[in-house]
Amino acid sequence: MLGLVITGHGRFASGLLQGVEQVVGEQPQCCAVDFPEGVSTAELMVMLEQACAACDSGEGVVILSDLLGGSPFRQAAMIAKQHADYQVITGTNMQLAAEMMLEREGMNPQSFRDMALECGRRGVTSLWHEEQKCNQQQNDSVSLDGI
Question: Record's Gene Ontology CC terms (predicted)?
C-alpha cells in the first residue's frame, strides 16, 4: 500500500488527517507533519524524511501538501527528487485526501497522483453549481419520461 504523508503550514496536516479519519476511519501508513511557527525548514525536512520512512512499505509514498511554493511543498519536492517512487501533490483538500486514502491500495504513485488531481478538482465547487447539476438531471429525467 502506498504511504501517505500530509504536510502544511500551522496545524493543517494534523487537522486534515484528523478530519479525514473521522470520516473514513483510521488509516495505516499515513502521517501528518505540521509546520508551525518557530520550526526551521531544516527541522521540517528531518520530520518529513522520518515520516516518509515510517510510511513507506516499499510501494512508494505520496506527499500531500497545502500550498504550491510554500516551505512544506519545497521540502517535500526535494525528498521526492531523490526517490523515483515518491510523488508530491499540492493544493490538497479534504475531498482529495478522504477519497484517495480509500483508493490507494494496489495503486502506484503515478496513478495515485493523476486520480488525486481529478478528485481534488471535483471537490472544489459551489452550492449554485451543484444545484444546476441537480436541475439539469431532473430536466433530463422529465424529458425522457415524456417519450
Answer: cytoplasm; membrane
pTM: 0.88
**Residue-number span of the structural domain to which 15 is assigned:** 3-145
Is the CB of residue 29 less than 8 Å from the CB of residue 63?
no
Mean per-residue pLDDT over the chain, rounded = 93
Pick the catalytic residue from 1, 2, 9, 109.
Answer: 9
CB-based contact 90:62 (threshold 8 Å): no
Provide the domain count of the chain: 1
Q: What is the CATH number of the domain that holds 120?
A: 3.40.50.510
Question: For residue 145, what is its C-alpha cell?
Answer: 419520461
* Whether residue 129 lies in the annotated active site: no
